[in-house]
Structures are given as structure tokens and as C-alpha cells.
Amino acid sequence: MTAAFWFYSSNNNSWYLSSDLQEALTLNNSPSSAELISAIPAINRFSVLRQFSKLFLGKSKNGVLETTLKSKNNETLQVKTEVKRICDRNGEIKIEGTVDLVKSPSSFLQIPSVAKIVYENTSEGILVTDANGFILSVNAGFSRITGYSYEEVIGKRPSILKSNKQDQGFYQDLWHSIIRDGAWTGTLWNRKKDGTLFASFQNISQIPLNNGPVKYVSVFSDITSDHNYKQKLKQLAYHDQLTGLKNRAYLRDKVNSQIEKNKSLQFNLLFIDLDNYKPINDNYGHAYGDEILKLVATRLESTLDDEFEIARFGGDEFIVYIPNFNDCELRNYITKIKAAMLIPFEYKNIKHQLSASIGVSAYPRDGKNFDELLVASDLAMYFAKSTKQRSCNYIEDMGYSASRQARLAKDFVPGLLSGEFSLVYQPKINTSNRLIVGVEALCRWQHPEFGAVSPQEFITIADQYSLHSELTEWVVNKACTDFRQISRIAPTLDLAINISGSQLKSDRLVELIKTVCEVSGVHTSQLELEITENELISDVDKSIRVLTKLRDMGVRIAIDDFGKGYSSFYYLRTLPINALKLDKACLQFDENDDETALNILNAVVNLTSSMNLALVIEGVENEHHLSLVEQVGANTVQGFYFSKPLPIEIIYQQIAINHNKKNQLRQTK
Ligand code: C2E
Ligand code: MG
Ligand code: MG
Question: Which residues sit with Cβ closer than 5 angstroms to ligand 3, an ion?
């Protein structure tokens, strides 16, 4: 490749050629326009003259003029010349050009020197074909990547690299892009000379040279290791490693992008939770449990067609994306899944009977994105599980209050762990000296979204969703930790904790109280457990055994809310209890009906004293209530008249004052 120059002057319509050009074209240094034009092949003449006249007329000031020229040896020279138009004060127009000459006409390109150096030294492979797809040239990068030498590929087609990993449609699309856009960029799999596959990141461009025949240049790099890495990352990011199913991240991306593309889309999301899976893990170990989960995944895959997306959410929970089906079809699929899960799963010759609880949400009805739909289907699943319905539609089946309940149930344990729950303490008062004799711990829940949730509501939820163990564990721990502080200044005070009757079905409560008392330093004799009596009904024998163990440890037991709901004298007779708490309802009579109130109070006082039980009267709200209580000779009360339930810091101060009062009373005696 050589550099040369020329110029044209409008003064006398003259040309000047540098020596290289004169030699190459066998012309003298100032050829006539006609001589020059005849050196241009007829096919290029029109385009060259057009460009030149644009420069001459001042329509363009500079540019690149490309043409072929006939050399003295009758070779075709590819000429690329950078041109500049200069017009001086006298109106003389000068057009000058620098030229890169390449003397190998049959080679693919006559390109500027820098480009050629880049071409030869770039690490990318470069391949050039003619319009018919025959390889005209390849660079060293091509040979290094593919293993084919220059000689081996010239005149062949690029299909020698074909891997058959892409189908015919892929190549049709590729050529369609090239024809339409002039270029295609993408990744495809090719095969090297030694047969190994490689991922090729490739750009193929169409190059129309000077109106001459079209050529195609393909520049590519081997991204196999990159590709494998990315695939691996993608596999990790989008797949559940245990079952090989897709994971939540995949489904989120898929669902959200589908919604993005088509807002009028309709589909359902199923949240599937296995029933009875936990005992398998507990009894046979996690590795065994994992094998069952793999079987569940396979069963789900074989039950549903490819158009469904099945993902593992985690643990024994799965999510299924169901494309747009009508209600009837949807119901059929749900039935199909439930039936499939009911067929026993067998591993190592052991059969396990599982079943599935399924929650259903629908787009767009139940949420505007994947996360909202997931929460809805999860809540519906929770509701289905608790009501033993096996499957349930969010909103449709649940209604607002049920969905609030399910939501609270779902947030219950996380709420306990994240500090949303707290305890307040209501004092128990001795009416004869107005001193505090004990405190009752009462639980509060401040939900981040719903605000304060009343104990009535969350205790009902704990009943329905079997959350009492978690609540009791938290309350006992917290109350005993708080109480250690109180008992330092008032060692004779009692701590009352509310316990659901459902906790008396196992020895867990006994173990809990034992451990917490040991750790906190609270003495078991300071503890009183208040049992809500209607909860006791389910297993009286077991309850008696548990209560006896507690009583033997020194813990006192009270029946709470006596006189309300399912109060039964049977329990008073059979259970090992120490105290009775009369429900506030027993004081809430019309002020003119003192007689009834007094009759009830008297009966209860007689009953408890004859049974040697302590009595606490709840709900003393005013002077009048207090006078009724005093008339029947009861002397331990609780109620707003004396104090509302208070946070630990305040009750602590109250108890300190109480303690001083007590000492003063003692001194005056
Ligand atoms: P409870 O154990 O009978 O507690 C007494 C309830 O009556 C408390 O309601 C208390 O704030 C309220 N109270 C106290 N004095 C008066 C009064 O003078 N007038 C009126 N109208 N009410 C009064 P709270 O805190 O809303 O608790 C309601 C119930 O929730 C409790 O009744 C108890 O059964 C249950 N509960 C509260 N905390 C716990 C807990 O930690 N565990 C369990 N299992 N149940 C709890
Ligand atoms: Mg109570
Ligand atoms: Mg009560």
C-alpha cells in the first residue's frame, strides 16, 4: 500500500498527480480531464463525477472519494482518496486529495494503512465474503480462534464453521437483519477445525464498496468461557439447586416482564404448600427430605404441561404460573395438582402420604405485580390450610376480613421476632390497703401496617392458626426478664401470665417455665399462670397432668375470665388450681341492679373460700364497683379504677412507690 496525492485547479482546468500516481496510472504529472476519466472504469464514472462536481460546485467541502482505476499493467487499483475543496480570494477553486493505493486488486480490500494494521493484529477474528458468500479473506485472529489457516478457507463458505446448534430459522432471521439493517450482531455457536464448539460473539456487516459488488465482513470473538460463566450464573440465579425447577427470581422476572409487555394479560399464580412434609424431615433427616422434594418437583412437572411455569419458592413451597384459562379449566388444573400430590411418594421403600394446600391469586384482580400476587396467593394458601379447605382463592373465597386474618397470621411470628410485640402490666390490688400485690402481663401488638391489633383479634388468630406456642414462649421469656427487675425491689410480688389452654396439651410449657425461671432468676412460686378456661376442654386428662407438674414446681394456676363463656364447675373440681379470676362481665350490671351483682359476687366468694381458692375480681372500673366488691368481702381486684395496664418502666415506678408505702405502713403498725 502506498500514499500519493493529486490536485485540481479551476484556474486553467489543470490536474496534478504525484509521482506514485503517475506511475501507477501511466500518466504524466498533468493529465487532461479526459485522460483521467478514461482511467476510471465506466461503471464507476458516473458516481465519481457526481462527487467531484459536488465538490467543485461547493455543495460539499470535503469527503472521501472511492473508485477503482486501471493501472498500467491493466490491474484494477482500488483507490480511496480523501478530498478537500479550497477556494481562494481570487475565486480559484482547488480540489486536492491524498490517496491510499493498494495494489492487490483481487484481495478483498484496499484499506487505509492504519485499518490494515488493526485488521491484521486484532485479537478478533475477521472474515470477509463476497456477495455470494465465498470467503475472500480472513485475518490472523480468525486462524487463531478457529484453527483454519488462510489458505484453507479462501474460496470456501463460512458454513465450514457451522455447529448445527442453530436451526435454519435462526440463519433466516440473521440474514433478514443484514438485508434490512445492513448488519447483525449476536451470539452463535460455531465449530473449530478440531471439532470443538465455541460461542462466537459476532457482528456481520454488509459493505457496499463504491457501488461495486457487495461484501460481508464478519468480526467475531470467542466468548465461550464468558458464555459458560454467564450460563452458569444464569442457571444459579434462575434455578433451584435442589430440584432443578425454576426459582422465585425467575418467576418474578418472567411475570413482571410479561405484565410490562401486555397490561391486559390475565393469569393465575398458585402457591402450593405441602401438608405433612415436616414430619418427614424431622423423622428421616434433611437429606432424605430433600429426595422427597425432588420427587414432588418431578410429579408437578409431569402433571402440568410446558406452558405452565413451576418454581420452587423454598422449603416445601412451590409456585405455579398458570396462563390465561377460564375458571373451569383453572379448577380442573388445581384438582389435578391436588390429586397428584395425594399419590404417595416413595423413597427407599418407604411410602409417604402428602397433600397440598393451594392458594390462588389472579392478575390483575389481586395484585399489579408479581410480589403482590405472591402475597395474595400465599395468604390464600394460609387460609386454605387453616380452614382445611386444601385450596382457596384470594378475595373470592376469603373476603376482606379473612384476608386480614390470614395476613396477621402470616406476620405473627415475624412480628414476635422483630419487636412488634410488647408487654404491659396491670397491677392487682389489695383493696384493704390499696397496695399492689402482683402484676398481670398483657400482650400488645403494633403491626407496621395495621397499627395496634387488639389482643382479642390476635389471640383468636393464635387459636385458629396454632400460634400459641410461639406467643407463650415469647411472653414467658419477656415477662420473666422484666420481672427480675421488679422483684429486686418487691420480692414478694406475683407475676401473672396468660396462657392459652391449648398449651396444656404437652409438657413443652413445663420445660419452658423451668428453663426461663432458671435463666431469669424468677422463682416459680412468684408465677401465676392464668388459663382461659374454654380452651381446656379439648384434653382434660392431659391438661390435669401438665397443670399438676406445674403446681408441683410451685407455680400457681388461676382460671381466668370465670363467669364468661364456657365456665364450668367441672373444671373447678377436677383441675389442680389455686385461684379464680372473676370476669369483668360480672360487675357490669345496671347500677340499679346491685342485688344481682351482689348475689353473684357472694356466690363466687363462698364458692372460692369453700374450695380454698384465691379470688381476683376483674374489671373494677369505679367507686361503685369497688363498694360492691368490698361489700362481699373480696379483697383482690384489678381494674381501670386503680390502674390501666402500664409499660414496664411506669409499673416499675409504681411498684417502687408501693414498696415505700408498704414500709411506711409496717412502721406505723
Ligand atoms: P384477661 O387476661 O382477662 O385480661 C384482662 C383484660 O381486661 C385486659 O384486656 C385488660 O386491659 C382489661 N381490663 C383490665 N381492667 C379493666 C377494666 O376495669 N375494665 C375493662 N373494661 N377492661 C379491663 P386486654 O389487655 O385487651 O386483654 C384481653 C385478653 O387477651 C386478656 O384477658 C387475655 O385473655 C388475652 N391476653 C392478653 N395478653 C395475653 C397473652 O400474653 N397471652 C394470652 N394467651 N392471652 C393474652
Ligand atoms: Mg388474664
Ligand atoms: Mg380475665
Answer: 560-561, 618
